[in-house]
Amino acid sequence: MSSVLRTQVLRTAVRSLATATRTQIQATPARLTVAARSYTSAAPASAPLKSNISTTSSAVVSSTKDLIINSQRIVAGAVVSRQPLILRDLTPFEKEYFVYQKNLERDHAAAFGAEFYFKKGSVAERRWKQQEAEKQAAASGASTTAGAKGSKSSSSKGAASEVPDEVTEEDRVAALEAKIQFNDRITDADRKNDVRSLERALARTLYLIVKKPRDQHAWQFPQGGVRVCENLQEATGRELSEECGSNMDLWFVGRVPIGHYQYNFPKEFVASSSTPTVKGAKVFFMKAHIFAGQVQVDNKEIVDFAWVTKQEMKDYVTPEYYEAVQDMLSDF
Amino acid sequence: MSSPFARSALKANTLMRAGGAPMKKSGGTSLNGDARNDLIKKVLFDAPARPPVRLSPEEMTRHETIERAWKLVRQQQKQEQTEGLARKFEMMRKANAELEATSAQLFKHSQTKERHAVFPRQLRTLTDTPPKQIWNYRQPAAATPATKA
């Protein structure tokens, strides 16, 4: 009995050790691990190395036949999003509330030990005293203008007598201090309203839509037919690299589709097509993030592209398409 | 943050003060007679307590109204977020149900998780202002991707 237990304990220990070492060894990002694990000799050379698309399920002989089930073409679509880069703007109420809270905290705060934090006679102490005097003036100026004027004149007189020493000290310290430059939240792309730019609307989520060379239903998410012996994630990656170029650093959010859309082909299209048995298509959307790069149109399948917010998409895609896909997208 | 040494020093000082003994210039236990240690101890232990907040009835009503409005706004924001997430989840659930009905092979692959999946390092933390180079429009590789570093 005890020997059986001992072997069981040993087995579990060995297993746990094995997994621990395996995870330690393979702590590299999934993208590199997956690329190294590609067993197929016919692994597509055009597959972007940086993407995390799995290649382990590819067949040895890659087929280019389209997957058709129940006279519906299975299509993989890509919802590529550029996540926000900066925090959202505060609403007027939020700004007012934060100002109110700051003033409340300041008014009811404990006494500040200035003699502890500032060295006697230092520039920082002088600046602090100046700030306090200004605050006092502002507080009392609201109540009585005469009193404020008197205090202001006295403080200015005091300042004038010490001007020569103060200015040189201040200038010296100011010269040593580095000025922090903050970049503008509104970029050039915002001002020009360049919808192809990825620097527009930095606080919002932008989604990629592409334009097909036709009149109706021109704008949509990039999509393409899934091939036999291919999975959804691979199909999406392949279609994106074919239609939008390989200059995009993409990351696919798992293998689970986030939405689907079913539509039937127009009758004349079905009649004239090479496969008249196929009556429509079923699109499964896969989610991806873009971290760098830009779309490069191939001018064959797509002729134009745009990075738009959820609200702006209404102006591009057809109403029924928007209604079908809007719930997949972030409001902000 | 009060060491036993400092606590006993404080007790000794308060007892001495209560007894009417005058405070010595250098203090009872300042290291090497350094006055800065007394200042530090004073700031840490003898600092005056925060004064109690006194608001008039009008100010109190005003404050309460503001706080209620803030809570209401936050509640509405959270509700919107939750509803948005619920809509997304419903879309995902319907898509997966459809996929299961369509193709068992595709469905099976979609439900199996990647074994050593990790979050990408490029997922950026949001900041107040953007960086100097806002977006890296990296140049397309002229050669095959294998030659890129």
TrEMBL record, chain A:
UniProt xrefs under PROSITE patterns: NUDIX (PS51462)
Location relative to the cell: Mitochondrion
Pfam families (UniProt xref): MRP-L46, NUDIX
UniProt keyword list: Mitochondrion, Ribonucleoprotein, Ribosomal protein, Transit peptide
Disordered as annotated region, ranges: 129-168
Domain Nudix hydrolase: 156-330
Keyword Ion transport on entry: no
GO molecular function, one term: structural constituent of ribosome
Family matches, as InterPro entries: NUDIX_hydrolase-like_dom_sf (IPR015797), NUDIX_hydrolase_dom (IPR000086), Ribosomal_mL46 (IPR040008), Ribosomal_mL46_N (IPR021757), Ribosomal_mL46_NUDIX (IPR033650)
Listed Low complexity bias regions: 136-161
GO cellular component labels: mitochondrial inner membrane; mitochondrial large ribosomal subunit
Recorded family membership: Belongs to the mitochondrion-specific ribosomal protein mL46 family.
Record protein name field: Large ribosomal subunit protein mL46
Automatic annotation (TrEMBL), chain B:
Coiled coil: none
InterPro entries in UniProt: Ribosomal_mL40, Ribosomal_mL40_fung
One GO MF term: structural constituent of ribosome
Protein name (Swiss-Prot/TrEMBL): Large ribosomal subunit protein mL40
Domain of life: Eukaryota
Gene Ontology cellular component annotations, sorted alphabetically: mitochondrion; ribonucleoprotein complex; ribosome
Species of origin: Linnemannia exigua
Upper lineage: Eukaryota, Fungi, Fungi incertae sedis, Mucoromycota, Mortierellomycotina
Subcellular location: Mitochondrion
Matching Pfam families: MRP-L28 (PF09812)
Family membership: Belongs to the mitochondrion-specific ribosomal protein mL40 family.
Region (Disordered): 105-149
Keywords recorded for this protein, A-Z: Mitochondrion, Ribonucleoprotein, Ribosomal protein, Transit peptide
Main location: mitochondrion
GO biological process assignments: mitochondrial translation
